[in-house]
């Protein structure tokens, strides 16, 4: 059985949401990150960053929320959360799956701290560019890949929810509101919210 290490009100949310979407039994291990439970030698062997979330699956272990989403979606094909390797939708799926940690997250930090970076050298360009790209991608919907909900909606939905609704560092837009309402209406999202509260 897969084991998910998590802490409430953290980036663990996407991994919890994903496991709830998949529907296979899994073990949840709650770490109290206020007491340093994430820095023990035993846990560092699972996630060398000493952060949550992390996942253990037999001899396999990994940290990084988006990587966990990619891993579990591929390991549990019955859940239909990842287009197959030979499906052309796999390309956009991978792009959006990694867009959350590589573009949304640093864009949020930039908005929050007002750090200036030349957009050509910043991997996320600039915050407006990131949120314009997302706005366009969400214009058609209901999901990033069209009709098909995927693990990319879990990484993007989680990051956008943090940016727009929880931390309010990014002004909402009609497409974001519609999308986040659709995410929040999913029973698996609601179960994850209850677990992460
Ligand atoms: N890049 C990581 C970030 C994980 C992360 O920063 N987790 C925070 C909670 S939101 C954490 O575990 N902090 C405790 C610590 O750093 O000691 C991911 O996306 O999974």
Element string (H = helix, E = strand) = EHEHEEHHHHHH
What's the N-to-C terminus distance?
24 Å
In terms of DSSP E residues, the strand content is 5-15%
Rg, Cα atoms, Å: 17 Å
* Count of extended strands: 4
Q: Major beta sheet, specifics? A: 4 strands, mixed
**How much is the average pLDDT?**
96
Helix content: 40-55%
Structural class: alpha+beta
Task: Provide a count of the helices.
Answer: 8
Low-confidence sequence ranges = none
Helices and strands in order:
Elements: E1 3-6, H1 12-22, E2 27-30, H2 41-44, E3 54-57, E4 60-63, H3 65-75, H4 89-113, H5 127-137, H6 151-166, H7 174-184, H8 187-196
Parallel strand pairs: 1-2
Antiparallel strand pairs: 1-3, 3-4
Helix pairs in contact: 1-3, 1-6, 1-8, 3-4, 3-6, 4-5, 4-6, 6-7
Glutathione binds next to loops.
């Amino acid at each position: 059985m897969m084991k998910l290490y998590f802490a409430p009100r953290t980036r663990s949310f996407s991994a919890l949401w994903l496991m709830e979407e998949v529907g296979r039994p899994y073990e949840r291990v709650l770490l109290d990150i206020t007491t340093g439970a994430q820095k023990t030698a035993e846990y560092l062997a699972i996630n060398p960053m000493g952060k949550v979330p992390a996942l253990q699956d037999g001899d396999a272990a990994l940290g990084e929320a988006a990587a966990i989403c990619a891993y579990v979606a591929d390991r549990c094909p019955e859940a239909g959360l990842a287009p197959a390797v030979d499906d052309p939708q796999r390309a956009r799926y991978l792009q959006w799956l990694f867009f959350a940690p590589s573009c949304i997250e640093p864009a949020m930090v930039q908005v929050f701290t007002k750090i200036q970076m030349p957009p050509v050298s910043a991997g996320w360009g600039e915050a407006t560019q990131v949120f314009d790209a997302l706005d366009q991608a969400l214009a058609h919907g209901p999901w990033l890949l069209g009709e098909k909900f995927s693990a990319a909606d879990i990484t993007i939905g989680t990051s956008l929810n943090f940016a727009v609704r929880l931390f309010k560092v990014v002004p909402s837009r009609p497409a974001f509101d519609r999308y986040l309402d659709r995410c929040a209406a999913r029973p698996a999202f609601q179960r994850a919210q209850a677990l992460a509260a």
